[in-house]
Design a protein that fits this description.
The complex is a heterodimer. By secondary structure, chain A is α/β, with parallel strands linked by helices. Chain A has a single domain, classed as Thiamin diphosphate (ThDP)-binding fold, Pyr/PP domains (Rossmann fold), CATH 3.40.50. Helix content of chain A is 36%, strand content 15%. An 8-stranded mixed β-sheet of chain A has the order 2-1-3-4-8-7-9-10, sandwiched between helices. Chain A starts with 20 loop residues before the first helix and ends with a helix. By secondary structure, chain B is an alpha/beta fold. A 7-stranded mixed β-sheet of chain B has the order 3-2-4-5-7-6-13, with helices on both faces. In chain B, helix 10 links the parallel strand 11 and strand 12. In chain B, helix 7 packs across helix 9. Chain B is globular, with a radius of gyration of 21 Å. Classes of the chains: A alpha/beta, B alpha/beta. Chains A and B meet through strand 2, helix 3 and helix 5 of A and strand 3, helix 3 and strand 9 of B. Strand 2 of chain A pairs parallel with strand 9 of chain B, so a sheet runs across the interface. Bound molecules: thiamine diphosphate (TPP), iron/sulfur cluster and magnesium ion. The site of magnesium ion has 7 residues of chain A, from helix 4.
Chain lengths: 299, 391
């Protein structure tokens, strides 16, 4: 593997073959030449990279618990400020917190909100695979409507998850932070550009990155980029930024693909293609259209 | 605690909360994460005002919960800072998930505690239920009897934590100590600063040349050894505590040790207790001694690690022992009683009479007459395996 790519995060780790998480981590950390400190929530990224006595991290790294990646980062920020003031630290590092969707939308939301509100100098990256994957694929606040999960399973009386996913971008935006963006592991140059912007933003910044999960979304291990691209090409996962409150959409396709193109690639939506669930797909398509229109109006 | 050297300029009338804040002002940690809960609030409010008045440079992180208070303290400490916090009751349980992380990572964090009852029903008053609920998580726990101890314990706790690389919880009884004004002696700022010195950081997130991974995943083949290493640190803590108390005596003239023995030498009936109510018990003992009763007290100072051997030895000549717990263990004997039973089991050749009392829950007053009643029970052979309640 290219030496530069593994400078901060080594090629030795235990993610599933075809997992997009390492590419996200390398791209974000590769977006700066300054020292970096990583704070990480419990989840797939953490358990696959820190199995004692090995570690995949070549930069200072801390994992504490599931819901406190942002609060831990806040403490690191306070420490750096104090140590710099007292002359014990010459150069402050960039602080990057990584959390899964469970660790961000759900159990870590309060800690994230507090850290954003207090204005700590850090970048929070949520790698969003739309479920609690480390524990085997249970639903989270990020799991989309209609998906089959271990805790919202399909059955004779159920088509999977019956609720919408949270709009985390709007929740984070409401804190008035200077820069946040939605990205996708299938578009690494776009992710890199956004990470650079985020890391150069003083105070808190935020990236929400789609990370198709081969294991739980159920698609072949070679396909995460293709599946990710379809998420954006169908407008299920638009790429956009919010800079100083202004929206910039990065991917206006002339003709968005129908949502079925995305859904049909994954086992978690297989049941939706049965006749009985036609209306579920229709609703998902309608929701995508409405969200897209709303987003365009914000620009 | 023995004699206080009288130095007029440094004698002040302070509440426990203020006294702890005063110790923190002198230590001036790099980072303090704060979240309010009665009766801990006086510590963090006093400290916030000190910062507002320019008396300390500490980075204060006003977090949104106790879970984040300890999480931020963990992040700061791992980054090489001297980082502290304070809490009580629900706050301690709210952050409970992170407490074994602190000890597991070997971070020298100090958390000042004003102990308080746990809900439900809601009650903001003094009790040891909160600190007992987290007693087995790898934190050193030190109990204060009065405001002077609360001040001194803070300084000792910080030095201890950084010497052994383990977290320490100095504990005072909520309200009873945290909100009561007493005359105490404050050390000179320079004396405190010199005593605690600078934190010697072994591994840090801000050492970019030698990147460390904090908080790994340990599987069946390595986890057990991590825990055994922690147990070794706890054993070291006892020795280090005694040593630091000796050093503290040199700068203050105040003597602390694993426990305080009061009128114990020739006693036949003894109360074992912890925290503020030891003071009431001493007054009761003084009164009973005037009447010729051979009564005494053992007040436990270092509760974790528990000094089983030393306490067992100190009690080895006592035939009647009442253990007074300010906490309830539903469906079991309360914590201090259990530890005293373990202590005397290994030190007594003949089984002493042991009895468990629970007192002071939710701030219920414990008066001298209650203590006298306990001694009367012991004298009259009112001793059984049934827990008694001083309601
Ligand atoms: C307090 C707590 N509750 C539950 C868990 C169990 N748990 C560990 S990882 C995880 C799911 C993580 O999901 P997510 O944040 O989306 O990350 P992913 O595994 O998908 O990478 C859960 C539920 C835990 N470690 N701690
Ligand atoms: S379960 Fe999914 S997210 Fe987790 S390592 Fe495997 S592919 Fe990656
Ligand atoms: Mg997830």
């Amino acid at each position: 593997m290219n030496k530069d790519l593994t400078k901060k995060f080594s090629s030795g780790h235990a993610t599933c073959a075809g997992c997009g998480i390492p590419a996200i981590v390398r791209t974000v950390l590769g977006a700066t030449d300054e020292p970096v400190i990583v704070s990480n929530a419990t989840g797939c990224l953490e358990v696959t990279t820190t199995i004692y006595p090995a570690t995949s991290w070549k930069v200072p790294y801390i994992h504490s618990v599931f819901g406190n990646a942002a609060a831990t980062a806040a403490g690191i920020d306070a420490a750096q400020k104090a140590l710099e003031k007292s002359g014990k630290l010459k150069k402050k590092a960039k602080i990057v917190a990584f959390g899964g969707d469970g660790g961000t939308y759900d159990i870590g939301l309060q800690a994230l909100s507090g850290a954003l509100e207090r204005g700590h100098d850090f970048l929070y990256v949520c790698y969003d695979n739309e479920g609690y994957m480390n524990t085997g694929g249970q639903r989270s606040g990020a799991t989309p409507y209609g998906a089959n999960t271990e805790t919202a399973p399909v059955g004779s009386q159920s088509f999977g998850k019956t609720q919408q996913r949270k709009d985390l971008m709007e929740i984070v935006k409401a804190h008035g932070i200077k820069y946040l963006a939605q990205a996708n592991v299938a578009y690494l140059p776009d992710l890199k550009r956004k990470a650079q912007k985020a890391l150069n933003t003083p105070g808190p910044s935020f990236l929400l990155v789609l990370q198709p999960c081969t294991q739980i979304w159920k698609f072949p291990t070679s396909e995460y980029v293709a599946v990710g691209k379809l998420a954006t090409e169908t407008n299920f996962w638009p790429l956009y930024e919010i800079e100083d409150g202004k929206y910039i959409i990065n991917n206006i396709a002339k003709e968005p693909k129908p949502i079925e193109e995305f859904l049909k690639t994954q086992g978690r939506f297989k049941h939706l293609f049965k006749d009985a669930n036609k209306d579920v797909i229709a609703k998902i398509q309608n929701d995508v259209n409405v969200s897209w229109e709303k987003l365009q109006k914000k620009v | 605690m023995e004699k206080i050297t009288k130095n007029k300029t440094n004698v002040k009338a302070l509440t426990g909360g203020y006294a702890v804040a005063e110790a923190w002002r002198q230590i001036e940690p790099d980072v303090m994460a704060v979240y309010p809960i009665t009766p801990q609030t006086t510590i963090i409010e006093t400290y916030a005002k000190m910062k507002a008045d320019g008396k300390v440079a500490t980075e204060i992180v006003q977090v949104e919960s106790e879970h984040s208070a300890m999480s931020a303290t963990i992040g700061a400490s791992a980054a090489g800072a001297r980082a502290v916090t304070a809490s009580s009751s629900q706050g301690i349980l709210y952050m409970a998930e992170t407490l074994p992380v602190v000890s597991g990572l070997g971070l020298p964090i100090v958390m000042s505690v004003s102990s308080r009852a746990l809900s439900a029903p809601l009650n903001i008053h003094g009790e040891h239920g909160d600190v007992m609920a987290v007693r087995d998580l790898g934190w050193v726990q030190i109990f204060a009897e009065q405001v002077q101890d609360a001040y001194d314990d803070t300084i000792i706790a910080l030095k201890l934590a950084e010497e052994i690389n383990a977290p320490v919880m100095p504990i005072m009884d909520g309200f009873h100590t945290s909100h009561t004004t007493e005359r105490i002696e404050i050390l000179d700022d320079e004396v405190v600063k010199k005593f605690v010195g600078e934190r010697k950081v072994q591994q840090s997130l801000t050492d970019f040349e030698n990147p460390t991974t904090f908080g790994t995943l340990a599987l069946q083949n390595t986890f057990f050894e991590f825990k055994l290493d922690q147990e070794k640190v706890m054993q070291k803590a006892k020795i280090a505590y005694k040593k630091i108390c000796g050093e503290f005596f040199k700068i203050s003239g105040r003597k602390y040790s694993l426990f305080e023995a009061y009128q114990l030498e020739d006693a036949t009936s003894v109360i074992v207790i912890m925290g503020a109510t030891a003071g009431t018990a001493k007054d009761a003992i003084d009164k009973l001694r005037l009447k010729g009763k051979k009564v005494g007290l053992l007040s436990v100072k270092l509760f974790r690690p528990f000094p089983y051997g030393e306490i067992g030895k100190a009690l080895s000549h006592i035939s009647k022992i009442a253990v007074l717990d300010r906490a309830i263990s539903f469906g079991a004997f309360p914590p201090l009683y259990q530890d005293i039973v373990s202590s005397v089991y290994h030190s007594h050749s003949r089984k002493p009479d042991l009895v468990s009392y629970i007192y002071g829950l939710g701030g219920r007053d414990t008066m001298q007459k209650d203590i006298e009643k306990v001694f009367q029970d012991l004298a009259e052979g009112e001793i059984s395996s049934k827990i008694k309640y001083l309601t």
